[in-house]
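Figure 6 in text form: structure in, sequence out.
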């Protein structure tokens, strides 16, 4: 059946229309993330970091805490699989000359967790505003609202 269409010319793509003039290139695109999105990122990151900072363990805790702190301090392999990216990241924090190594490793985890919460807030802020902008009923409302 499809072969019959191709033989008769029905299945062939239609030629593109001839252009009527030069192609117009639109002006510069607005940035994907607005200022409000970045403020959301900053406020969320700061608030989450403060919460984590105030609740950091002052020293070693249970389970693998000691093993991971020593692995971070020497940039070694704590145990398989070794967490190489995490070990290098926390090793940078062990170079801070303040408190003990376990606290510095915990600080690195607090920074990473706060940053990831901030990124999540950034994406939710932008994504939700894009969804609201796509709903036709909301287009009739003034933008400042």
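Output sequence:
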């Amino acid at each position: 059946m499809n072969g019959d269409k191709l033989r008769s010319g029905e299945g062939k793509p239609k030629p593109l229309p001839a252009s009527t003039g030069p192609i117009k290139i639109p002006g510069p695109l607005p940035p994907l993330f607005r200022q409000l999105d970045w403020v959301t990122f900053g406020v969320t990151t700061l608030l989450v970091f403060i919460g984590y900072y105030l609740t950091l363990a002052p020293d070693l805790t249970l389970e693998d805490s000691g093993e991971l702190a020593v692995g971070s301090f020497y940039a070694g392999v704590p145990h398989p699989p070794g967490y190489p990216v995490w070990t290098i990241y926390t090793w940078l924090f062990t170079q801070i000359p303040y408190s003990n190594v376990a606290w510095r490793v915990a600080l690195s985890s607090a920074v990473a967790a706060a940053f990831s919460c901030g990124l999540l807030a950034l994406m939710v802020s932008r994504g939700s505003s894009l969804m609201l902008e796509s709903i036709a009923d909301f287009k009739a409302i003034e933008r400042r609202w």
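Caption detail: The chain has a mean pLDDT of 81.
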